[in-house]
Specification:
Strand order of the largest sheet of chain A: 2-1-5-3-4
Number of helices of chain B: 17
CATH class of the largest domain in chain A: Mainly Alpha
CATH topology of the largest domain in chain A: Fumarate Reductase Iron-sulfur Protein, Chain B, domain 2
Oligomer: heterodimer
Largest interface: A-B, 77 and 80 residues
CATH superfamily of the largest domain in chain B: FAD/NAD(P)-binding domain
Family (chain B): Belongs to the FAD-dependent oxidoreductase 2 family. FRD/SDH subfamily.
CATH superfamily of the largest domain in chain A: Alpha-helical ferredoxin
Shape of chain A: elongated
Distance between the termini of chain B: 20 Å
Order of helices and strands of chain A: EEHEEEEEHHHHHHH
Distance between the termini of chain A: 59 Å
Helix content of chain A: 25-40%
Strand content of chain B: 15-25%
Number of domains of chain A: 2
Number of domains of chain B: 2
Number of strands of chain A: 7
CATH topology of the largest domain in chain B: FAD/NAD(P)-binding domain
Number of helices of chain A: 8
Helix content of chain B: 25-40%
Enzyme class (chain B): oxidoreductase
Subcellular location (chain B): Cell membrane
EC number (chain B): 1.3.5.1
Shape of chain B: globular
Keywords (chain B): Cell membrane, Electron transport, FAD, Flavoprotein, Membrane, Oxidoreductase, Transport
Radius of gyration of chain B: 24 Å
Strand order of the largest sheet of chain B: 1-26-25-11-19
CATH class of the largest domain in chain B: Alpha Beta
Structural class of chain B: alpha/beta
CATH architecture of the largest domain in chain A: Orthogonal Bundle
């Protein structure tokens, strides 16, 4: 099929950017969206134009690198990652706009690549259980109720892609943070640091310039891993309990 | 099992190999054998304990004066950074991705082995050791493998304490499953995303140390050179991938945890960025590359759909438990709707050739036979090049027998993934599968301490060669990465660091200047060639050569041909590649150019290694070494050794150093699956 692509081009963080239009022919419906961009890049290079920079790595939907706003939707029209989106979701003759994540917390590095290091810093603030190597007790000495362990797993599947932030009108990272608070908070091992964790992570989140949550729910709708909105309730509950304890 | 084995460690059960053939004559130079691997002697079960005791300690007050560079943040690198940071060393961690959490360990699906024996089904450290050595077709080092099995239980304890949400039973205790054809249930798992959960555990532990100030992380940084000064590894030259700045980082010790090189085949299940550059730069600085031809090819991947294909996706091997593999008997049926091909015109070739194991033959056999039927022209799916590269994996019988709901319950997520990628519904149309490169057992040579032959250069995880022999068992990659990172390296690196801090060097040291200059020159070279072909086009062509001649089945003639083709391609690359953009900005073509240049050199060495090894072993079938029935034939009397290759200089021949594999605790046996 033949497509018209409107793609955000920006040389670096300080340069101004603009949408640029490209025609691309010979796109197969079996291509992934990123393979379609690979074909575009080969074409651009043969014409002497610099290829479009975009983040990607595993191309199987798990590393969380890929990050494109496609026709205004994070990861495009299907609920999956951009690398798992295939061109059969589009039609011959379509015009497709491709932009980087749009959020104050994720400044553009180049073209479609953004800086998501704020997520690392939120984890550094408290998204862990302090257990030095070698100090762990026998694994089965602390049973974890199966339903809680399953909920912990379900939300631990977050890939840190940032689609939640990019979709949120407030640019909030509450879903990302709530997923981690819930993952660790559901497990017995996570209890000792439960309340300091939520306070520290929220403080870092705010310092990074992410917005607050106003329960719109775009984040959960866009999440390629189906992290449910109620992790934000759990985050708020833990935060309220922590503040009541005077933390 | 092993009842006639003397575990005292005093009786050597194997005689040293003497190689008769010399297929690679003219392509290499024979070198001195490797005599000392620092592997301790004595009863195998005591070796690690004794060795840990004998390795010297570093005073806690001295640790913060010692700088450690770790390249890579997967299971091996992330776990090591966390653990060494906790111990108080000063760690600098590097990764090319935008966050340590994206390392490709994250994509491992199945699980992690540990000899916990929670099922009371007869598992033990010895049995895990035995299965791993046997699975590796007796080409791994027994002391290393035993240690791996020994620390496996600690890994599970550690991960659970970090909050890794492993599958649990109703009573809240940990669940296990059987994996990879072994007879005990020793695999711990987190649905089909075990690698992700283990990596996030290591990542969080590492980020905690970043906050504590013991670990500094350098993301979007790629190591482009190893600095060896006065005979010791003392640092790296790295490029900041955003600004393009070339940086020098100096330290007392360097750890490479940079993963495997499966992308030499272009198409593989590796991440797009996975590369050999860190390891290959170390190799060029003198580190031996061991058994580079040992690669693992996984039989159940989603086939290539066209020339645009950029990577391959693995589906769990468990599919072979219920799916039946077939191709049409007649070539003319290959483009028909498979549902219209009657039973008598189908060839269930694995069931036909291997009646007792059928569709459950080991990975390498399933892979090789799939390629054989496709090469005969009986493959299915779209034409890719001259062939259809796919075979059917048919669930129609299973759906009839168990019902669609039962099949959905077992494999629903895999069927969904297949449909998302191919657009076909596998409940109605048979799946198509084809083998893909998945893992490499070869890597930089290391001794028992995980130190390479360059002093002060340690190598962990998939980047080293030591634990999997010629084939890796399922659920063992995660085990090895974490064993190296959490429990082995921290206990071996201290023996080296006990002599530190080493004499300070600065950026003006001639070896540092030379390393830095060579990186800058190479980048300028890439940008100035300004030829006609893109980097990707070279990478694809190299991949095709490797897959065709150095993949599942190798032959003497094919390998010689491949070496010539790679040399020609390499010469063309250096005169005709086109890399646009500048050095002082994010430039993904430039990044790829460096990686592909190194893959071209590695590919040639892999072919030379494969040519030399005239035996069928582990995942590899050498056409000249088969039984009358066409089965793999190993030659222990000639090849029970590690082939450790030394760089022979630009344009020179690689030098082969052999390390004989000595077994005291396990007897060598030939396998049979007929």
């Amino acid at each position: 099929m033949r497509l018209t692509l409107k793609i955000w081009r920006q040389q670096n963080a300080s340069a101004p950017g603009a949408m640029k239009t490209y025609d691309l022919d010979g796109v197969s419906t079996d291509m992934s969206f990123l393979e379609m961009l690979d074909v575009l890049n080969e074409q651009l290079q043969s014409q002497g134009e610099e290829p479009v920079a975009f983040d990607h790595d595993c191309r199987e939907g798990i590393c969380g690198s890929c990050s494109l706003m496609i026709n205004g939707q994070a990861h495009g029209p299907e609920v999956t990652t951009t690398c798992q989106l295939h061109m059969r979701s589009f039609k011959d003759g379509d015009t497709i706009t491709v932009e980087p994540w749009r959020a104050a917390g994720f400044p553009v590095v180049k073209d479609l690549v953004v800086d998501r290091s704020a997520f690392d810093r939120i984890i550094q603030a408290g998204g862990f259980i302090s257990a030095n190597t070698g100090s762990a007790p026998e694994a089965n000495s602390v049973p974890a109720p199966r339903d809680k362990a399953m909920r912990a797993f379900d939300v631990a599947t977050c890939i840190g892609c940032g689609a939640c932030v990019a979709s949120c009108p407030n640019g909030s990272a509450s879903l990302f943070m709530g997923a981690k608070i819930t993952h660790l908070g559901e497990l017995p091992q996570g209890q000792p640091e439960r309340y300091s964790r939520v306070v520290d992570m929220v403080a870092q989140h705010d310092a990074e310039g992410f917005g607050g949550c106003t329960n719109i729910g775009e984040c959960a709708a866009a999440c390629p891993k189906g992290i449910p909105l109620d992790v934000i309730s759990q985050l708020n509950r833990d935060l309220r309990d922590a503040l009541r304890q005077g933390r | 099992m092993a009842s006639n084995v003397d575990v005292s460690g005093n009786t050597v059960l194997t005689s040293p190999p003497v190689q008769q053939s010399d297929d690679a004559h003219g392509y290499y130079t024979p070198g001195e054998p490797i005599r000392d691997t620092k592997a301790p002697s004595g009863p195998i079960k005591d070796r690690w304990t004794t060795h840990k005791m004998n390795n010297r300690l570093v005073n806690p007050a001295n640790r913060r004066k010692l700088d450690i560079i770790i390249v890579g943040t997967g299971l091996a690198g992330g776990a090591a950074a966390a653990t060494l940071g906790e111990a108080g060393y000063n760690v600098k961690s590097f990764c090319y991705q935008d966050s340590p959490r994206r390392a490709h360990s994250i994509a491992a699906q199945g699980g992690i082995n540990a000899a916990k024996n929670y099922k009371e089904d007869g598992d033990s450290v010895y049995r895990l050791f035995y299965d791993t050595v046997k699975g590796g077709d007796y080409r791994s080092r027994e002391s290393n493998v035993y240690r791996l099995a020994e620390v496996s239980t600690n890994i599970i304890d550690q991960c659970v304490a970090q909050g890794v949400p492993f599958a649990r039973e109703y009573g809240g205790l940990l669940d296990n499953r059987s994996f990879g054809g072994v007879q005990v249930s020793r695999t711990f798992y987190a649905r089909g995303q075990t690698g992700q959960q283990l990596l996030i555990g290591a990542y969080q532990a590492m980020e905690r140390q970043v906050a504590a100030g013991t670990v500094t992380q350098y993301t979007r940084h790629e190591m482009l050179e190893l600095i060896v000064a006065d005979g010791k590894a003392r640092g790296i030259v790295a490029r900041d991938l955003v600004t393009g700045e070339i940086e020098t980082h100096l330290a007392d010790v360097v750890v490479l945890a940079s993963g495997g090189y499966g992308n030499v085949f272009y198409l593989s299940t590796n991440a797009m960025g996975s590369n050999v550059t860190a390891a290959w730069r170390a190799h060029r600085k003198g580190a031996y590359m061991a058994n580079p031809c040992y690669t693992q090819i996984h039989p159940t991947c989603i086939p290539v759909s066209g020339d645009h294909q950029s990577k391959l996706t693995l589906m769990s091997e468990s599919l072979r438990n219920d799916g039946r593999i077939w191709v049409p008997k007649n070539r003319e049926d290959c483009d028909k709707d498979p549902r219209d091909i009657p039973e008598e015109d189908r060839d269930y070739y694995l069931e036909r050739i291997y009646p007792s194991f059928g569709n459950l033959v080991p990975r390498d056999i399933a892979s090789r036979q799939a390629k054989n039927v496709c090469d005969e022209g009986r493959g299915v799916g779209p034409m890719v090049g001259d062939f259809r590269r796919g075979v059917y994996l048919d669930f129609a019988d299973a759906i009839n027998r168990l019902g669609e709901d039962a099949v959905r319950e077992k494999y629903g997520n895999l069927f969904d993934m297949y449909e998302r990628i191919t657009g076909e519904n596998p409940y109605q149309v048979p799946m198509r599968i084809y083998p893909a490169v998945h893992y490499v057992m070869g890597g930089l040579w290391v001794d028992y301490d995980l130190q390479s032959n360059i002093e002060g250069l340690f190598v962990t995880g998939e980047a080293n060669f030591s634990d999997h022999g010629a084939n890796r068992l399922g659920a063992s990659a995660l085990m090895q990465g974490l064993a190296d990172g959490y429990f082995v390296l921290p206990n071996t690196i201290r023996e080296y660091l006990a002599d530190g801090p080493f004499a300070p060097i600065d950026e003006s040291h001639p070896d540092v200047v030379a390393a830095r200059t060579s990186v800058e020159d190479r980048i300028q070279k890439f940008l100035s060639i300004n030829g006609n072909r893109t980097v990707d086009s070279y990478h694809k062509e190299l991949g095709n050569i490797m897959w065709e001649y150095c993949g599942m089945e190798r032959s003497e003639d094919g390998l010689r041909k491949a070496i010539d083709m790679i040399r020609e391609l390499k010469a063309d690359f250096w005169s005709n590649v086109k890399v646009l953009g500048t050095a002082d900005s994010l430039n993904q073509s430039l990044e790829k150019a460096g990686r592909v240049a190194d893959f071209l050199e590695l590919g040639e060495l892999m072919c030379i290694d494969a040519l030399n090894r005239r035996e069928s072993c582990g995942g590899h079938f050498r056409a000249e070494s088969q039984t009358e029935d066409g089965e793999a034939l190993r030659h222990d009397e000639e090849f029970a050794y590690v082939a450790a290759w030394e760089f022979g200089g630009e344009g020179g021949q690689p030098v082969l150093h052999k390390e004989d594999l000595v077994y005291t605790a396990i007897e060598m046996k030939q396998r049979s699956y007929k």
